[in-house]
Design a protein that fits this description.
The chain is an alpha/beta fold and 431 residues long. It has a single domain, classed as TIM Barrel. The chain is built from 13 helices and 13 strands. The protein has helices at residues 7-35, 66-71, 77-88, 116-131, 149-159, 175-189, 224-240, 277-281, 295-298, 304-326, 346-365, 398-415, 423-427; strands at 43-45, 48-51, 54-56, 58-62, 93-97, 108-110, 113-114, 135-139, 206-210, 245-247, 289-293, 330-335, 370-375. The strands form three sheets. It has an eight-stranded parallel sheet. A hairpin with a 2-residue loop joins strand 2 and strand 3. 45% of the residues are buried. Belongs to the glycosyl hydrolase 5 (cellulase A) family. Keywords: Glycosidase, Hydrolase, Secreted. It is found in: Secreted.
């Protein structure tokens, strides 16, 4: 038993021990918060991205799978691990899906019905990105069937008896489907993040919105249907969120409205998809143009060296259009070389990446419109089932890993950002 006279002293001692514990517990959190610079929105100044009045050239990647993996607590850690790995390479932007319409782990179960569990997974992705100083390019719907896409919207309208056509392209012109999509956009843009408490439309962690992944409307090769849809939806988004940049999500093909550029297309079929890089990107609410680079999917009989020549011509043409015609940045949001090609060798992928990085670096040095690249696509170890013939686990492919770090350092030097985002330490070492 404690003597009565010592009890006041023990109470005082207990108070100080408790206070010390609280201080030590919250000190690191406070210092981390205090030391974290306020994040500014990425903006556009002519043909350049800017943050805090400094140019930003993007070296980043695609990991479409973030939200899907964040739903399950057993795989959620892979999101943070991938973001950490990207940040350690100096990568600044990751493109990922902010949609999953119908099916397994659907964000939007049916028109206007959302799964809160999946929304919280997306909240987690955004919060983790901020933690690792990586910004997100969030894509809003898929032209393809993966994760629902426009096919799911058409099926919903058909099932509810309001669809005007069973064609997948009715996604672009059916009034009911347009309303479905607008409702989705409104819910997403005004979503209050359950982790950070910030509405998506007010969160600078989001680099930009991408309207649709690889849009095509083959039922109207003139391009009018798709253009009308782009104009309407981008106007709607900007009426809710005027803080974030916005892009279409194009592959970059030229259509009938750009007759002088048709020879730049890989083959004739590319001009018959209802898209047009210049016209679509010139929409008043579009802040920057997007292009993909997949020569081994677009050609069937070209040698590797011929594909490389095409890539340079393809990129330079779009950078020139961005500078002279659009007066907007051009971001190459997907590029990759398939490992299923008959003549494939790992060294080819190194050369392919090098050429693409060099074109962007030269454009950056000359202050042209080539604004950066996003590799398709990066994974963590053990995720082979989610990979494809382009997938890369960075630390398992040392030469690619080094190339990506080198590009981060080169672009950081051009913009004077070597003191930021750990680039100074990263770029002072030889990799």
């Amino acid at each position: 038993m404690v003597p009565t006279r010592n009890r006041p002293m023990l109470r005082i001692l207990g108070f100080f021990i408790c206070a010390a514990f609280i201080y030590l517990s919250f000190r690191d959190l406070w210092l981390n918060h205090k030391g974290k610079a306020k994040l500014g929105f990425v903006k556009r100044n002519g043909t350049q991205f800017v943050v805090d009045d400094k140019p930003l050239y993007v070296n980043g990647w695609n990991s479409y799978w973030f939200m899907d993996h964040a739903v399950d607590e057993h795989s959620r850690n892979l999101v943070g691990e991938m973001l950490e790995a990207g940040a350690k390479m100096g990568l600044t932007v990751c493109r990922t899906w902010a949609f999953n319409d119908g099916g397994y782990n659907a964000l939007q179960i049916s028109p206007g019905r959302f799964d809160e569990r999946v929304f919280q997974a997306l909240d987690h992705v955004i919060a983790e990105a901020r933690k690792h100083d990586v910004r997100l390019l969030l894509s809003l719907v898929n032209n393809l069937q993966a994760y629902g896409g426009k096919t799911q919207y058409v099926n919903w309208a058909w099932q509810e008896g309001v669809g005007v056509s069973s064609s997948n392209d009715s996604f672009f012109f059916d009034p009911s489907i347009r309303n479905y999509f607008k409702n989705y956009l409104k819910v997403l843009l005004t979503r209050k993040n359950s982790v950070t408490g910030i509405e998506y439309r007010n969160d600078p962690t989001i680099f930009a919105w991408e309207l649709i992944n690889e849009p095509r409307c083959t039922t109207d090769v003139s391009g009018k249907t798709l253009q009308d849809w782009i104009d309407e939806m981008t106007g709607f988004i900007k009426s809710i969120d005027d803080k974030h940049l916005l892009t279409v999500g194009l592959e970059g093909f030229y259509g009938p409205n750009s007759p002088k550029r048709l020879t730049v297309n890989p083959e004739q079929w590319a001009s018959e998809l209802g898209t047009d890089f210049v016209q679509n990107s010139n929409s008043s609410n579009i802040d920057f143009a997007s292009v993909h680079i997949y020569p081994d999917h677009w050609f069937h009989n070209q040698t590797f060296e011929e594909k490389l020549k095409f890539v340079v011509k393809w990129m330079q043409s779009h950078i020139e259009d961005g500078f002279k015609e659009l007066k907007k940045p051009v971001l190459f949001t997907e590029f990759g070389l398939s490992n299923l090609n008959k003549d494939y060798e790992p060294s080819q992928r190194d050369k392919f990446y090098r050429i693409i990085f060099d074109v962007i670096y030269k454009s950056a040095k000359r202050k042209k419109s080539g604004a950066g690249t996003l590799v398709w696509q990066l994974f963590m170890e053990g995720m082979e089932t989610f990979s494809d013939d382009f997938g890369i686990v960075p630390h398992e492919q040392d030469s690619i890993y080094k190339l990506m770090i080198e590009q981060s350092c080169r672009l950081g030097k051009v913009t004077g950002r070597l003191k930021e985002q750990n680039l100074k330490e990263l770029c002072s070492h030889k990799h």
